[in-house]
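Researcher: Here's a chain I'd like modeled. Treat it as a single chain, no partners, no ligands.
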Amino acid sequence: MWTTITLLMSGVWKLLKPVFIMIAKEIKEESIELALEIVEELSKSDLSSEQKRLQAFNTIKIELQDSGKELADASINLLVELAVSKLRRNL
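Model: Modeled as a single isolated chain. C-alpha coordinates:
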Protein backbone atom coordinates (compact mmCIF):
# COMPACT_ATOMS: atom_id res chain seq x y z
CA MET A 1 0.00 0.00 0.00
CA TRP A 2 2.67 2.50 1.02
CA THR A 3 4.77 1.49 -1.95
CA THR A 4 1.92 2.45 -4.28
CA ILE A 5 1.38 5.76 -2.53
CA THR A 6 5.10 6.51 -2.55
CA LEU A 7 5.27 5.73 -6.27
CA LEU A 8 2.31 7.97 -7.04
CA MET A 9 3.75 10.83 -5.06
CA SER A 10 7.25 10.51 -6.45
CA GLY A 11 8.68 11.98 -9.60
CA VAL A 12 8.67 8.50 -11.12
CA TRP A 13 4.89 8.70 -11.54
CA LYS A 14 5.31 11.75 -13.78
CA LEU A 15 7.38 9.58 -16.10
CA LEU A 16 5.17 6.48 -15.94
CA LYS A 17 1.75 8.13 -16.17
CA PRO A 18 1.91 8.84 -19.93
CA VAL A 19 2.95 5.23 -20.55
CA PHE A 20 -0.01 3.87 -18.56
CA ILE A 21 -2.41 6.22 -20.33
CA MET A 22 -1.08 5.17 -23.73
CA ILE A 23 -1.43 1.47 -22.91
CA ALA A 24 -4.95 1.97 -21.53
CA LYS A 25 -6.06 3.76 -24.69
CA GLU A 26 -4.49 1.10 -26.88
CA ILE A 27 -6.17 -1.82 -25.15
CA LYS A 28 -9.87 -1.88 -25.83
CA GLU A 29 -12.50 -3.89 -23.98
CA GLU A 30 -12.94 -6.24 -26.93
CA SER A 31 -9.23 -7.06 -26.83
CA ILE A 32 -9.53 -7.93 -23.15
CA GLU A 33 -12.50 -10.21 -23.83
CA LEU A 34 -10.58 -11.91 -26.63
CA ALA A 35 -7.63 -12.52 -24.33
CA LEU A 36 -9.90 -13.92 -21.62
CA GLU A 37 -11.47 -16.39 -24.04
CA ILE A 38 -8.12 -17.56 -25.39
CA VAL A 39 -6.44 -17.89 -21.98
CA GLU A 40 -9.43 -19.73 -20.54
CA GLU A 41 -9.40 -22.20 -23.43
CA LEU A 42 -5.64 -22.74 -23.11
CA SER A 43 -5.94 -23.28 -19.36
CA LYS A 44 -7.65 -26.59 -20.17
CA SER A 45 -4.75 -27.82 -22.29
CA ASP A 46 -1.80 -29.98 -21.24
CA LEU A 47 0.76 -27.41 -22.40
CA SER A 48 3.35 -26.00 -20.02
CA SER A 49 2.81 -22.52 -18.61
CA GLU A 50 5.37 -21.05 -21.00
CA GLN A 51 3.80 -22.83 -23.98
CA LYS A 52 0.36 -21.54 -22.96
CA ARG A 53 1.70 -17.99 -22.64
CA LEU A 54 3.37 -18.14 -26.04
CA GLN A 55 0.30 -19.70 -27.68
CA ALA A 56 -1.98 -17.07 -26.11
CA PHE A 57 0.32 -14.27 -27.29
CA ASN A 58 0.46 -15.59 -30.86
CA THR A 59 -3.28 -16.29 -31.06
CA ILE A 60 -4.22 -12.85 -29.74
CA LYS A 61 -1.79 -11.17 -32.15
CA ILE A 62 -3.18 -13.08 -35.14
CA GLU A 63 -6.82 -12.52 -34.14
CA LEU A 64 -6.24 -8.78 -33.73
CA GLN A 65 -4.41 -8.55 -37.05
CA ASP A 66 -7.21 -10.47 -38.78
CA SER A 67 -9.71 -7.93 -37.44
CA GLY A 68 -7.58 -5.03 -38.66
CA LYS A 69 -6.18 -4.08 -35.26
CA GLU A 70 -2.62 -4.15 -34.03
CA LEU A 71 -1.17 -3.82 -30.57
CA ALA A 72 2.41 -3.54 -29.46
CA ASP A 73 3.92 -6.77 -28.17
CA ALA A 74 4.11 -5.28 -24.67
CA SER A 75 0.37 -4.58 -24.74
CA ILE A 76 -0.39 -8.12 -25.87
CA ASN A 77 1.76 -9.47 -23.05
CA LEU A 78 -0.17 -7.25 -20.65
CA LEU A 79 -3.46 -8.63 -22.00
CA VAL A 80 -2.25 -12.18 -21.39
CA GLU A 81 -1.18 -11.35 -17.84
CA LEU A 82 -4.46 -9.59 -17.08
CA ALA A 83 -6.44 -12.54 -18.42
CA VAL A 84 -4.40 -15.04 -16.39
CA SER A 85 -4.84 -12.93 -13.27
CA LYS A 86 -8.60 -12.69 -13.76
CA LEU A 87 -8.87 -16.41 -14.45
CA ARG A 88 -6.96 -17.25 -11.25
CA ARG A 89 -9.19 -14.96 -9.18
CA ASN A 90 -12.29 -16.68 -10.54
CA LEU A 91 -11.06 -20.19 -9.67
